[in-house]
Amino acid sequence: MKVLLLKDVYKLGRAGDVKKVADGYGRNFLIPQGFATLATPSSLKQAEFIRAKAATMRAALNSEMSGVAESLANITLTFAGKAGETGKLYGSITSQMVADALEAKTGVKIDKRQVEMEPIRALGEHAAHVRLTIDLTPAIKILVHREGEMVQVSEPTTAVEEPVEELPAE
Fold first, then answer.
1. Domains parsed from the chain with CATH numbers
2. pLDDT tens, 79-113?
3. What is the DSSP letter of 161?
4. CA distances (Å), 82 to each of 7, 121, 127, in order?
């Protein structure tokens, strides 16, 4: 099925593009959500208008989010976790944990689906990307260390320490 995209769709294309997609994807998701319409000759005449309108909206959104992207690019998150002798974590650092730490640090609501990373299961330094818009994806640095160890962070003002639950002393 050929569809004309009305909005930017992540990993598919930009507004105004004509894409060939699976019938079920187009019929059950893209068209009902308002992301696309069938690529008929009459709708193809509107493709240039849709492309121009989306470009102006994309430019406005990118200029609005560029300040957030710059602040996120300088952030280093620090997480403490229990790990074995080989450096493997007993748990993992998930995109939800990273999104919560970013929201606590910057005050900007970040959804876990915007954080592009695999779950972190080892000690060390890792990278993740935050997809703010289709064009803006700043990279953040994540440091994972053992619980109880101190870590030297080059920028101490941008580190976020994940709270560790401790049992009360009796």
1. 2-45 (3.40.5.10), 68-158 (3.10.430.100)
2. 998 988 898 999 899 999 999 999 998 888 889 99
3. B
4. 44, 10, 20
